[in-house]
Amino acid sequence: MIKNEYEYQVTKSWVGKFQQAIITFSQNEEKKQKDPEGWQLMIDSYFAQIKNLLDEIADYESLLDHNPEETLVLQTSNISFSEMGKLLVKARIAQKISLKELAALTRLTEEKLKEYENKDYQNASFNDVIEVAEALGIKLQHCTLVSKIDGFLSSELTKIRQHQHINIDSVATS
User: Fold this and answer.
1) Which of 56, 79, 99, 82 is closest to 139 using CA atoms?
2) In which band, very low, low, confident or very high, does the pLDDT at 131 lie, cut at 50, 70 and 90?
3) Each residue of 96-122: pLDDT tens digit?
4) pLDDT digits over 40-74, tens only?
């Protein structure tokens, strides 16, 4: 995800580099003749990289083009905590709010917000995420909460419950 002008320019530069790599690699007739499957795999991987980068560029440009006077609607089919961080960054960009302005709207420093954004808020406390969301005017609408305990969590809960049961039994027999 592109988060600022520098990353935008770097991403555009990488598109050009991949395009040049395709041109150069396409002209390698020896490689094409010796290993046609490997040659095609490389060409396809370059095109896939270009597509991903162009998608990121288009996403960033659409955020930049957003009129902050209009309601911003960002939709995702799977809103996890990790996805929420990306949505916060997108909302800030689209609403044309600088990190300095966001810091003024919250109790957080500009440096802390930059640190959070660099890691898509994975290092932020839940309270900080909520505070930033509120400062950005974010409201979740039509949400469906889905909770599933996977195998790892189930195993950990079993251990915790067994440990608690042992502690309860030892207290009861004392």
Assistant:
1) 79
2) very high
3) 999 999 999 999 999 999 999 999 999
4) 999 999 999 999 999 999 999 999 999 888 888 88
Contact call for residues 89 and 3 (beta carbons, < 8 A):
yes
CB 95 within 8 A of CB 136: yes
For residue 148, pLDDT over 80 is answered with no
DSSP of 8-43, one letter per residue? HHHHHHHHHHHHHHHHHHHT-HHHHHH-HHHHHHHH
Q: Rounded to whole angstroms, how far apart are CA atoms 88 and 84?
A: 6
Compute the Cα dihedral for 118, 120, 122, 128 and give only its sign: positive
Which token pair is 29?
């007739």
Distance set, CA 138 to CA 1, 24, 71, 100 (Å)? 20, 47, 10, 18
What angle, 0 to 180 degrees and rounded to 10, lies between the N-to-C axes of helices 81-94 and 110-118?
120
CA distances from 58 to 12, 64, 65, 117 (A): 11, 10, 10, 20
Tabulate helix, strand, coil % of the chain (nearest 5): 70, 0, 30
Joined together, the tokens standing for residue 49 give 């990289």
User: Token pair 């490689």 is at which residue?
Assistant: 31
pLDDT grade for 17, boundaries at 50, 70 and 90: very high
